[in-house]
UniProtKB/TrEMBL annotation:
Protein name: MaoC family dehydratase
Superkingdom of this protein's organism: Bacteria
Organism name: Sphaerisporangium flaviroseum
Family annotation (CDD domains): NodN (cd03450)
Record family assignment: Belongs to the enoyl-CoA hydratase/isomerase family.
Length: 150
């Protein structure tokens, strides 16, 4: 994990890759719980028997489940000291270049692409890339925005 003492030190890392999270397995139980929480019960996610005959050869994680892992990945990759809070502001761009097969391992990578002053603190744009172990294409590329409040 990369640690920044304060927002100024973090700001100096603009344009740098900040590191990677650890690998974590995406399980069918997680996918099923996500389906319950969101009401998205599409068979490609929750029906292993039917999905076995699909082009993916099995069930795949919801794209938005992959997005939901981003905060956990970020907390493993870096920390910034001297803050009262960090607020998720949103996404500017989100893509899913390749699916995440259930049972595969994923990890997140982070790059600080921009940091600007705002009345409440500093706005940071962090490009998050979710990799699938053994695959060349990323599963998710998301330009996330956070407000860092001193």
């Amino acid at each position: 994990m990369r640690s920044f003492a304060n927002i100024e030190e973090f700001s100096a890392a603009k344009g740098e890759h900040l590191g990677y999270s650890g690998w974590r397995e995406v399980t069918q139980a997680q996918v099923n719980m996500f389906a319950e929480a969101t009401g998205d019960h599409q068979w490609i996610h929750v029906d292993p028997e039917r999905a076995a005959d699909s082009p993916f050869g099995g069930t795949i994680a919801h794209g938005y489940l992959t997005v939901a892992l981003l905060p956990a990945f970020i907390t493993e990759i870096f920390s910034v000291g001297g803050l009262s809070m960090v607020v998720n502001v949103g996404l500017n761009r989100l893509r899913f270049p390749t699916p995440v097969p259930v049972g595969s391992r994923v990890r997140g990578g982070a790059e600080l692409t921009e940091l600007k002053n705002s009345p409440a603190g500093r706005l940071a744009w962090i490009r998050m890339t979710v990799e699938v172990d053994g695959q060349k294409k990323a599963a998710c590329v998301a330009d996330t925005m956070f407000l860092y409040v001193p």
